UniProtKB/TrEMBL annotation:
Annotated TM spans: 17-36, 42-60, 67-85, 91-109, 121-141, 153-175, 182-198, 204-227
Top-rank taxon, per record: Bacteria
Keywords attached to this entry: Membrane, Transmembrane, Transmembrane helix
Coiled coil: none
Protein name: YhhN-like protein
Amino acid sequence: MTIKQLFSFNYLKQKDVIFNLFVYLSFIATVLVSIIADKKVLTYFMPVTIFAILLKYISLTKQNVKPLYIIGLLAIIVSDLLTFLDFNTHFKWITILTSLYLISSALILRKYLLKGQLKSILYFSVFIGLLLVSYIIYSVLDLILDFIPEPMLLYIILNAFSVLIFTILCALIYVNDHYDNSTILLGAAIFCLFHIGLTPINEFIAYNDTFTVLIVISHVLSIYLFMRFITTTEAIKTKDIKQKYF
């Protein structure tokens, strides 16, 4: 290894450490703020944490950055800002921006689905999971509909549909078991579902500081785990694998 190569390697290693520290420290700070401070203070911390994940993503992908994911993360940053400013007032835009992130993420996941893979929707485990997710979404909608103005119903349906599609894709990729780290993707989907399901309950029905902490943790983990999956996992082709059946 030449001196130039050694210098370049050390530089990249140091840069990676810096980005990791930025992500971890901003995440810890955000969680601490959610525990000890007023919710509105998170306006200054949560967007920074998501921005740190965005920088980490760019540093890992370099020339292979996916514009869709950048757009999705920027949408989430704005959504988080509006959420902690005034959830009720900005509910329409929060649902639109969150849906934009979920749709962008779902489009990115398309390349990880193999031809003929959609038949795995018939797998018993996926079918049960789909029913469970649908029931959770229905239960949340049933709880909050009385608190939502009728004109907002369309945006709620859009958000529910986006969550369902994103979760189904994650489940399909996980169940087919073609990727070693598909568990990371499943974790991202579970945390996402938890965050989106609990947030309206916390804001509209029964606000609780503990719920806020759980929402913050699940929200960040969902985005971070999804980022880890798409940056560490190369999509494979149908010809390179043997389809697995249960």
